[in-house]
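On clarity, I found the account of how folds are encoded harder to follow than it need be. What matters is that the chain and its backbone geometry are given together, residue for residue. The format is easy to grasp once an entry is in front of the reader. For illustration, here is how one protein appears when written out as sequence plus structure tokens.
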Amino acid sequence: MESQTLYRVKKEDLPKLEKLLVKCFAHDPLYCKLIPEKETRERLLPELFKCDLTEFIETCEIYSDSEEMNSLLVVSDESEPYNPLTFYLTEAWASLKTDEYLIKEDPSLKTLWNFMRGRDYLNSRWTDQLHQEERLHVIYLAVAPKMQHHGLAEKLMDEVIDYADRHKLMISLETHNPANVSMYEKFGFKLYGIVQKKGFDLKQYCMIKQA
């Protein structure tokens, strides 16, 4: 995905975005389920998001509304050609770093076990059912709490939708917050399905917008 209006994030911007993600997802149902203890979650999230962004800067497109970076959009363009070896090596490295950090910070292995049980939620495994390569997948859409209700989410989503419409691409995304479902429906998304693994009390709301 390319954009002429959004700010393309650079590697040197990542530390600022790590802090943004921590603020936005500290109380997200997914991370509250994976890391139930608040103090442990506050300690782990910065490093986890650092691993995520280090991977995504190599494999995805990362945008913000401006250089001030009050918002974040991470998109994977499934229609673009990629080097499978580079992709899988980058993904494997990020996974190893994440597991290493979880073991180091929680030797009881409870958090690591939660992440293993929730791996399908984290990896958007449900999109395998779509059998659609002409697709954008929105991995993160986040707006700094102090800047919410200022139209930044709309600015980011409108850009994604405009690009998808021009290139006849499906858009997929998921949320673990039921309150977000109606917001995405206003952008034209429809609920594709709800994922809930047996013995894992968390619902993943899977949504698509047809080309």
